[in-house]
Structures are given as structure tokens and as C-alpha cells.
Amino acid sequence: MTGRRLASGGSRIDRARPISVRFDGRDLEAFEGDTFASALLANGVVGGFRSPILGRPRGIVSAGAEEPNAFVAVLEPWTDVIVPATLMSAVDGLVAESRPGVGTLVETADRREPRRQHRHVETLVVGGGIAGRAAAVEAAARGDRVLLVDEGAVIDDPPTGDDVTVLPNATALGVYDAGYVVIHERTPDLERVWHVRARNVVLATGTLERPIAFAGNDVPGVMLAGSVAAYVERFGVGPGERAAVFATNDWGLGVAEVLAAAGVEVVRTIDARAGERVVAADGDGALERIVVLDAAGREGSFEADLLAVSGGWNPNLTLWRSIGGDLTYDAARSCFVPRSGPGSGPAWLSVAGAAAGEVPESEPLWVVAEGEDADKFVDLQRDQTVADVAAALGRGLRSVEHVKRATYIGTAVDQGRTSGVLAAEIVNHLLGEDPGAQGPSGARPPYAPVSFAALAGPFAGDRFDPARTTPMHAWHLEHGAAFEDTGQWKRPRYFAPGGEPLEEAVERECLAVRNAVGAMDASTLGKIEVVGPDAPAFLDRMYTNRMSNLAVGSIRYGVMLGLDGMVWDDGVAMRVAEDRYYVTTTSGGAANVLDRFEEWLQTEWPDLRVFCTSVTEQRAVVAMNGPRARDVLAAVGTDVDLSSETFPFMTFRDGTLAGVPARLARVSFSGELAYELHVSSWHGLAVWEAVLAAGEPFGIRPYGLEAMDVLRAEKGFFIVGQETDGTVTPADLGMDWIVNPSKGDFLGRRSLRRSDLVRPDRKQLVGLLPEDPAALLPEGAQLVLEDTGRIPMPMSGFVTSSYRSPALDRTFALGLLEAGHAMHGRTVYAPLPEGTIAAKVIPPAFYDPEGERRDG
Amino acid sequence: MLLIPCPWCGPRDEREFRYGGQAGIDYPADPDSLTDQEWADFLFMRENPKGAFAERWFHTAGCRRWFDAVRDTVTYAFGATTPPPVDPGEPDR
């Protein structure tokens, strides 16, 4: 191993501050200011990487974001799955491992907790080179707030000003509509994603030097000429000791002078414009020998360990193209430049400097004719060669886009920054077209690899999705609740304080409700106050039944339909005053129902004087069900007369309960005597605890969603989203009684007459009793009328809900079955891998079908 | 992400809004008088133009007002916006 640090030079490094880094188990000496790549080269690490598919030795090619080979995973002091060594600052103690263009998931959390930053500016400049800095200065001078970002660690001579922010180590990942740009900032101490909205975006993204495809062009030691110069000038590193330069342009050949001035021996320059060319680069793990043809066609060879290659420059237009910017071919410079004018990129986006095409002139040379095409690499990260491109064309492909899909050229981590234009020009060349006939394949974000953790920022773990909890949540946690998510709500599914299994807990909870009393936290019910002189007329138009003739103090169940006539949501309406209703919705549908109310009031019926206010969060609800519910309420203490004569089913009373204001509503989702206790959320926990304490002598139990589901299904009550899926009408549910066609128009009414909605063979809700009372039909199981044993069988329906009923001491189910209402008494079959279950079709009411239990 | 000019709040991120489809589809005055075909046209048939398109937006996470906006479906540029026909105002109490 030889040290390659030059005796002097290196504008970025501080030779007074040595640091130590570790690469694949080897300790390396470096200086502050080095990138990890310059540290590797300074220590003579020429190869050190492997190609992902062929496993060929590979070395550092570039000094920037176009790097196709030198990818590392960072293990200490922070963690990164995969990052180009050319863009990563070297810091003392850094430990990294090589990666063959493919990352390995890091299991430990990054010590840099990802952050997110939002910013609004008038001008965002991407790229901190000369053109970018000039654009930033100009924008600042006209009073703009300016953000200037660059992917490198250093922005030379940065513009200054009160409203100017300069952000190094920051890669613009994507440019989106209306000046929305996502930027990834990454330093050893910080990982942060910026979400920027800019009035103007200037892309000063510079150029990417392009390689030339010749045999052995992937051997470590073959580098891009501009990058070689960068290592010499910025980091005081000579990437080799015996160098050659192969270029199609003056600038590239000038790198020979940079090397010579730094004391690196330059053994040969090869000027493609004079007809000279490199026909092979050879070496065992690193460059040793270069074979050339001179202008007269004479072959010669010489020893070298560094070959600086310049095939010209491509304006770096990935971001420009990703938001609809077009390209046009500039023959003089043999490169693609942005096409300006209508239809090419949005008006707020501009391109400046070298990216706009201000690059030196260059001869077009994409492929050296001599040598084996299978040794001429086009995409180093995908291990694809000129022969692979030719093979794709040989299969009849003609479009660059198709060649990309066939070869995967341009799809690796580096997104084809060195290979995209090269591949396009090789396609043009092999098809006999002029250079530029086809441009590079399309570009899309992200511009550079970014982890999901970085994009998520702080919104991971508990902050990924906010959880909504009821006022009684702490009690549930303390009492062994297993939770179920309903939208963002955390709802107790069952209570198992002793860790009992679900079946045992649910049976206990169901029997408590049927035989004594149970209490459920129903606070997640959607609750909306609908107020105004036109509230009665408005609700008549929203629900299928009449709400305007509801007496004050009374409750009516209601169903809402989509305009297509399908069941959409349900709940009850309580008439609090002539001009005031309190309506409940499904827990998951609350926001949608409020949105819908507001939509129709604002857009179709602005003449209606109605206000809607969500009070879901303001009101806690205890649903108390069971024959002893009245006794418990009396024990809790209330000033409401609880007798069925003065407080009948489907009415409510406002009064006090446990010393706090409460609305007591006689609605039942179990068929038992039941009260919903609506109180202020502030009192929710106290009332819940008071109910459970007072209920103890009566055998009260808390119950969860699972028991509620069993209890309602025993009664044949449907649940929106369980028995319905957007294709089910009230008639399909056997609920024609809920539709009042004579009251005037309501949402969905006209659809109920559509021919498809009155077909007699529609799927209709039925009850299902398995012949084997222990057999549990799986929810979702398909139903057939005849079990032929041959697949496929014509399906006639499916199971929507299925439970074991402690009250019935058997299994039962609900399902949707074609012409189900006419099928009562028939047997249907659920063919399942573990055997067919036969079930008898009955009306969907299993328990107390006469409804004799609701008054206790 | 689109930048949507709410007529009440000014330009806001798309994530604050709910899309409401094509604008100017009035609910029929008398749905009963429509044939099945006419009702189905009202329910389901919408334009899908290339270029200017008048559509409805709901500022869900903002002022909670509906409005109409003209958007170019090619460039995504927003043109004129129109607030709802009448401010619902304060109901009588």
C-alpha cells in the first residue's frame, strides 16, 4: 500500500487536523475536510469495491454524485444503509464497509434522529457552483428570500444576506408541482429533509463528465478526468503515480497539466480528435497496462496505474427532465441541453450555467470500435456492456426506454448519471442514427438514494399516525383491554385482566349483557349537532326516513345512502329542540358524514339555514346494556324518572347522572334494555367508573367491540362496512321499512328505482345456522348452492359476520346470498380447504326475534 | 404537491384539500322525472379534458369551504377560483 497524498495542495483539507477512519477493517489516515473517497485514494485504496452482478473489482470513478462504484454502509458513529463515498465527509472514528451497489438493512436506529424542515422562499437555487451563486446573489439583490443548496460539503465563496440561507451537504431529491422541492440534508451530525415551496427554482446543477466505452474501462484506476483534477486540487491526492489522459476535448487533456504540476508522472496523453484512442485497459485488480492506437493506427502499450478519461460533458438535467423539461441535442458540444419554450418545463423553473449547455466543445466518441464489446462497460452498477445493448437491439428493441427495461441500464443507485446518455448514444450508433437521434431515458425522483426513515422524519413510531383515545382509555389500559383500531381510534376489543383468551373473555362479556348488565365505552361514536330552523327539512333530505316529524325528546334510527342508492352510514337522530338535532354516526364515518352535510349545505342548498358542529370529541358515551341496566342507573343516582312508562324506548332525557349533566338515551344495539349515557368528555371517566362501581352488586362487566358484535349479530343488526360494502341497498338488508318514499326527495332515492337495484336475484342479507353447531364459518367464506366438489363452482354469496353465540350455545353467521330473502329454509355450503360447512338459511334474527327484552 | 388557491385562505398545500370532481354538475331539480339513463348520466358520467377543467375542491383542513377552481390538467396550473354561491351565514336562533 502506498500513500498517495501529495506534498502540498488541497483547498478543502486541513493538514493540521489529522483524523483516522476505518474501511473494511483497515485503519486509514486522513485529514479533516476529506471525503471518504479522497481518504481512500490518499491511502492508495484503488480497488476495494466489487461490482454487484459480475463481482469484478471496481474502484472510485468520480468525485461526486455520479459515482457508480464506491458505495459504503456507515456503521459508526452514525448509520447509513448505502451512500456514495464521494459525497460523504470523513470524520474521525468513522467506520464504513464497502457495498456492491446494494445496501444491507441496518437494524439499529440512526443516532441522528431524522428531522423535517418546511421553508418558503422566493428563489431556490440548486447547485452552489459559479452559476448557482450568481443566481442567488441576483435574487437576493431584488429582495428575494433565497435558499441555495449543494450536495457537496463545501460551497466556495457563499453568498451572504439576511434572507439568504446556504445549505451544503444537501441534495435536491425531487422537483414537484408549483415549486415544491424536497431536499435531503445529510451531515455526520444531522439528517434532515427539507420541504421547500419556492416561487422560482433555478437549476444550476452543473455537468457530469461522461466516460468512453472501451475494453477494460471498468478496471480500478480508470477515472473521470475532471474528478482526477478535483482530487488533486481539493484534497491534495494523486489518484495514481503513472498517469495517462484520454480525452475528446481540450479541457480533458488539460488534466495532464494539473497532474504534472502536482508532481504526478504523466506518461501519455491520448487525443481522440487526432484519431488516437485507448483500445484496452488491463490489470489484475487495478490498472497496470494501457493499450493504445496512434493516429496512424499503430498499436502500442505502456504501464500506468491511472487513466483519466474525458468523453465530454453532459449537462446534469435529471431534475429538469423529471418535471417535464425537454432536451435538445447540441451537435457542437455533442450533448443534450435543455429545450426552452412552451411545453418544456414549468414557467417557474429555469436552468443556469453549465447545466443550461455552457460546456466546452467536444468530439463525439462514445464507443471505441476495437476490442471485445463484452468488455466495454456502459453501466458499471448494472454490469451492462456494449454487447448487452447490442443484444437488446438484436431482439428487435429500438427505443432507449425499451433497452433500459431490457438491460436495467440507468436503474441502479446512481440512476444512470454516467450511463444514461452513453447508452442512448450507443443505441443511436448501433442503429446507424445520428448522435442525439434518441436522448436518454426518462428521469424521475428521487435524484439520489434516501432512506424511508429520512423521509418519515420525526413521524415514525408513535408519531406515524396519531392515535385517538377516549376519556376512559387509561381505565381500559389498567383493566387488561385488548385494543382494536377503528380508523385512528383505539377501542377495547375485549377485557382480559387475567390474560384470558379472546373466546373466554367474549363469552363472559356476552353472558353478562344477556343475563345481568354490561357497559361499553361507546365514546368513539360520531356525534354531530345539526342546528337551525331548516334542520328538520335538511335531515329529511339526508336520511331515507323522515326526521322532521320526530318529537322533541325522541330518537329515530336512520340510514344514509350514497347517491347511487347504496347504504353509506347509519346512526340515530335525537331531537333536542324544534331546531336542534343531535345525531350519531358510525365511529369510522364521523368525519365523512360531517363533510357530506357541509358539502350539500354549501353547494346545493345554501338557502337552508343549518349549522353542523362535530361534538365527537366533546361527548363521552357509556352504552349500558342488560336486564339490570335500569337498576344500575338508579344506583348510580339520577334525577331522571327511569320507568318505561315515562321514559320509553327510543326516547332520551337530559338530567344529571352521578352528579354531572347527562343525556340518557334509550337505544339498544343488543336487544336488551339499554341506555346510552352521553356526558361531557371531562366527566367520561368518572361516569364510567361510577357505573361500574354501582353495577357491581348486579354483576356488571365492561365489554368490548367483539362482544358488541356478537350481541348485535344475534339480533341481526348490520354494521356498515361489515354487512355492507358499497353495493348493498336497504332492501338488500331487508330494511325496506327504513325507506320512506313518500316524504319527498332524499339522497339516493332516485337510484333505488334503477333496474339493477330492483333485480330479485340481488345478494340479500340472511342468517346462517351451520348444521354442525360447533362449526364456525370463516368471515368472507364463499357460499354455493351445490357443493359439486369441482372447482370452480358458481358462487352465490359470502359470509359477512360469524360468531359463537354464548346465548344460543352454538355458532351462527350473517351473509349476503343471491335472492337470499326467498331462500329461507334452504341449505347452502361453504367449501373450504379443511372441509365443507353446510348451513341452513334463516331470517337474520337469532335471539329474541320478537323484541321482548328491550324494556327489561 | 399542488398549490391550491383557496379563495378564502390563499394558496395552500394540496394535502389540506379534498377533491370534489367536476364542477357545475347540478343536482337535478326533480330526480323522479329523469329516465334511468339520464339519472345514470348525472351520477356517473364526467368530463376528462386535456387542458382547462373546472372542478370542485373542499378545504377540509382549513376553512372547510367548498369552491370551484379551473385547473389545467396538463400543466396543473390553477386559474380562476369561485367561492360557493351564497355564504350560508348565521342561522336564526
Would you mind describing this structure in some detail?
The complex is a heterodimer of chains A (856) and B (93). By secondary structure, chain A is of the alpha+beta class. Among the domains of chain A are: 14-99, Ubiquitin-like (UB roll); 112-205 and 314-359, FAD/NAD(P)-binding domain (3-Layer(bba) Sandwich); 473-524 and 619-711, 2-Layer Sandwich (Gyrase A, domain 2), CATH 3.30.1360; 526-614, Alpha-Beta Plaits (2-Layer Sandwich); 759-856, Elongation Factor Tu (Ef-tu), domain 3 (Beta Barrel). Chain A is built from 16 helices and 46 strands. In chain A, strands 8, 9, 10, 11, 12, 13 and 25 form a seven-stranded mixed sheet that branches. In chain A, strands 37-38-39-36-30-40 form a six-stranded mixed sheet. In chain A, helix 2 links the parallel strand 8 and strand 9. The radius of gyration of chain A is 37 Å and the shape is elongated. Chain B is mainly β. Chain B has one helix at 36-44; strands at 3-6, 10-13, 18-22, 52-58, 66-72, 78-82. In chain B, the strands form two sheets. Chain B has a four-stranded antiparallel sheet, with no helix packed on it. In chain B, strands 1-2 form a two-stranded antiparallel ribbon. In chain B, a hairpin with a 7-residue loop joins strand 4 (52-58) and strand 5 (66-72). Chain B is globular, with a radius of gyration of 15 Å. The N and C termini of chain B lie far apart (42 Å).
